[in-house]
């Protein structure tokens, strides 16, 4: 019963399998390159450009929400017309 749970050692005889030293990097997105290029030297690397783009998108969403809620028409009670009594049109 104890033999069932013993650890077995695996030995590889081939040295052909080599572990990669470093994972390949993904290319920098064009929008991030554009932000770095046109920032006037304020943004120096990809991380800063990504944070700037995230901040810009949050700012645009907030402005959109403010504009949507501020553009609702204000209706006063004096502007609402009384509807005619609809019961006279119902046939019994």
What does this 3D model show about the protein?
By secondary structure, the protein is an all-alpha fold. It has helices at residues 30-38, 46-70. It has a domain at 27-71.
Radius of gyration, whole Å = 34 Å
What's the order of the H and E elements?
HH
Shape annotation: elongated
Spans of at least 5 consecutive residues whose pLDDT stays below 50 are none
Strand count, sense and barrel status of the largest sheet are: none
Number of strands: 0
Salient structural properties:
mainly alpha, 92 residues, single chain
Set down the secondary structure blueprint.
Blueprint: H1 30-38, H2 46-70
Concise summary:
This protein has 92 residues and is mostly helical. Helix content is 37%, strand content 0%. It is built from two helices and no strands.
